[in-house]
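Postdoc handover notes: sequence design on the structure in folder B. Input tokens:
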């Protein structure tokens, strides 16, 4: 299974939190990262999104079908997110579009076995892969990318 974590792009400040939308810069970030992800993700990739306005606007930049999962909203725990994604037993790739602090906590838990407060910057994507080995599963960080690496 591959687990791809994508933090929502830059959003407006304000409340209520669930209705905050992307800024003009955030829309650019989402378009850049979405275009790259669309090129590299297989068609069979399962895509899950938090139900907030900013995550939905971010995932829509990918231009693919996705599932809104209320359990992975801003207040989710790392364990709730991993459960929703089917980690570690799901087949293929699962892309999760969400929030800090749980994105960083998911990454640290999967990569080190310890939940820590790691930072994943806005609109960055972390691609975590696992492959079966004779001596057990090998989990590794396949890529970390930021939208500024891509041009329009």
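Designed sequence:
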């Amino acid at each position: 299974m591959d687990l791809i974590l994508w933090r929502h792009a830059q959003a407006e400040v304000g409340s209520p939190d669930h209705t905050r939308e992307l800024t003009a810069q955030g829309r650019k970030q989402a378009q850049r990262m979405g275009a790259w992800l669309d090129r590299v993700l297989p068609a069979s990739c399962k895509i899950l999104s938090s139900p907030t306005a900013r995550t939905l606007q971010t995932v829509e930049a990918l231009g693919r079908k996705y599932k809104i999962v209320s359990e992975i909203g801003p207040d989710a725990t790392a364990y709730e997110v991993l459960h929703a994604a089917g980690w570690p037993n799901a087949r293929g790739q699962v892309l999760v579009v969400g929030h800090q602090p749980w994105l960083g906590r998911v990454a640290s838990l999967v990569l080190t076995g310890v939940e820590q407060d790691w930072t994943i910057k806005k609109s960055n994507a972390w691609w975590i892969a696992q492959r079966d080995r004779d001596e057990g599963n090998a989990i590794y960080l396949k890529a970390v990318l930021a939208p500024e690496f891509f041009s329009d």
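Context for whoever picks this up: The chain has a mean pLDDT of 95. Don't rerun without checking with the PI first.
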